[in-house]
Amino acid sequence: MEQKEITNEKALKALEHMKNYCSATNLDELNYVIKVIKKLNNDGITNPLETDFTSLKK
Predict the structure, then answer these.
(1) Handedness of CA 33, 34, 39, 41 (dihedral sign)
(2) Phi-psi region of 44 (alpha: psi -120 to 50; beta: other; left: phi over 0)
(3) Distance between CA atoms of 16 and 11, rounded to whole angstroms?
(4) Is 54 exposed, middle or buried (0-12, 13-18, 19+ CB in 10 A)?
(5) Per residue in 4-51, pLDDT tens?
(6) Distance CA 23, CA 20 (A)
(7) What CA–CA distance (Å, rounded) separates 28 from 5?
(8) First-to-last C-alpha distance (Å) of the chain
(9) Which residues contact 56 (CB under 8 A, 6 or more apart)?
(10) Distance between CA atoms of residues 45 and 48, nearest Å
(11) Model-level pTM?
Protein backbone atom coordinates (compact mmCIF):
# COMPACT_ATOMS: atom_id res chain seq x y z
CA MET A 1 0.00 0.00 0.00
CA GLU A 2 1.33 3.40 -0.98
CA GLN A 3 1.71 5.93 1.82
CA LYS A 4 0.02 9.29 1.24
CA GLU A 5 1.70 12.61 1.90
CA ILE A 6 -0.33 14.21 4.69
CA THR A 7 -0.13 17.97 5.02
CA ASN A 8 -1.38 20.15 7.85
CA GLU A 9 -4.16 21.35 5.55
CA LYS A 10 -5.31 17.78 4.79
CA ALA A 11 -5.19 16.86 8.47
CA LEU A 12 -7.19 19.96 9.44
CA LYS A 13 -9.80 19.21 6.80
CA ALA A 14 -10.18 15.65 8.09
CA LEU A 15 -10.43 16.85 11.69
CA GLU A 16 -13.09 19.40 10.78
CA HIS A 17 -15.09 16.62 9.11
CA MET A 18 -14.67 14.45 12.20
CA LYS A 19 -16.31 17.16 14.31
CA ASN A 20 -19.64 16.19 12.70
CA TYR A 21 -19.37 12.69 14.15
CA CYS A 22 -17.55 13.41 17.39
CA SER A 23 -19.32 12.81 20.66
CA ALA A 24 -19.90 15.87 22.80
CA THR A 25 -17.60 14.46 25.49
CA ASN A 26 -14.59 14.67 23.14
CA LEU A 27 -15.40 17.83 21.23
CA ASP A 28 -13.22 20.08 23.41
CA GLU A 29 -10.22 17.81 22.87
CA LEU A 30 -10.79 17.70 19.12
CA ASN A 31 -11.06 21.50 18.98
CA TYR A 32 -7.80 21.72 20.94
CA VAL A 33 -5.97 19.51 18.43
CA ILE A 34 -7.33 21.61 15.56
CA LYS A 35 -6.04 24.79 17.25
CA VAL A 36 -2.61 23.22 17.82
CA ILE A 37 -2.22 22.15 14.19
CA LYS A 38 -3.40 25.57 12.98
CA LYS A 39 -0.85 27.28 15.25
CA LEU A 40 1.96 25.03 14.08
CA ASN A 41 1.00 25.67 10.47
CA ASN A 42 0.82 29.45 11.03
CA ASP A 43 4.25 29.34 12.68
CA GLY A 44 5.73 27.63 9.62
CA ILE A 45 5.87 24.07 10.95
CA THR A 46 4.75 22.18 7.88
CA ASN A 47 5.85 18.72 9.02
CA PRO A 48 5.43 18.50 12.80
CA LEU A 49 6.28 14.79 12.96
CA GLU A 50 9.73 15.45 11.48
CA THR A 51 10.43 18.71 13.37
CA ASP A 52 13.00 18.85 16.16
CA PHE A 53 11.36 20.82 18.97
CA THR A 54 14.21 20.29 21.45
CA SER A 55 15.76 23.65 20.59
CA LEU A 56 12.68 25.57 21.73
CA LYS A 57 12.95 27.44 25.01
CA LYS A 58 10.74 26.33 27.86
Answers:
(1) positive
(2) left
(3) 9
(4) exposed
(5) 788 999 999 999 999 999 899 999 999 999 999 999 999 999 999 889
(6) 9
(7) 27
(8) 40
(9) none
(10) 6
(11) 0.80
